[in-house]
Amino acid sequence: KILDKTREIVIQEFEKSEEEVKDGMDIALCSLKGNTLHYAGANNPLWIIRKGAEEIEEIKADKQPIGKYAEPTPYTTHKIELQKGDTIYIFSDGYADQFGGEKGKKFKAANFKKLLLSIQNETIDQQREIINQAFEEWKGDLEQLDDVCVIGVRI
Questions:
Q1: How many alpha carbons lie under 13 Å from residue 62 in its C-beta half-sphere?
Q2: Where in 43-124 does DSSP place strands (E)?
Q3: 83 vs 34: CA distance, rounded Å
Q4: Which domains does the chain have, with CATH numbers?
Q5: How far apart are CA 28 and CA 108, in angstroms?
């Protein structure tokens, strides 16, 4: 409901502009109470690494931005039960979309998943350092083109 209301407000504000605004935003919203997580996403998924797991569980976002959209539908709120030791990640697309490496290509979501799985046994503070270092090494001397936000929470 929060994302639906946000979309309403954004559209109202854009309509006040003298020029047509064709902008929007992608967002992930989480509410954690105890071990119960409520998540809703506008183009931004939620990734969960269960304690000791060898793969990432992806909770898909709704494929529509916050803003005007041809066929808007209400955003889905997912209820997920977590356990001690699980780690959740929400993030902007800037990390995976960053150009770099030897060939100047995008980092890609698949490589980001591999990175997160490879560091899952580290503390959250250590993960932050490794994620930052990997990003800087990948980017090298190339310009950062987009915002980069990665939020990880260990239960």
A1: 22
A2: 46-49, 57-59, 66-67, 78-81, 87-91, 99-100, 105-106
A3: 10
A4: 2-154 (3.60.40.10)
A5: 19
Q: How far apart are CA 106 and CA 101, in angstroms?
A: 8
pLDDT tens digits, 11-69: 888 777 777 767 788 999 999 999 999 999 999 999 999 998 999 999 999 999 998 88
H helix runs in the chain, sequence order? 2-15, 109-118, 124-139
SS3 label, residue 81: strand
Q: Which residues contact 97 (CB under 8 A, 6 or more apart)?
A: 106, 107, 145, 146
pTM: 0.89
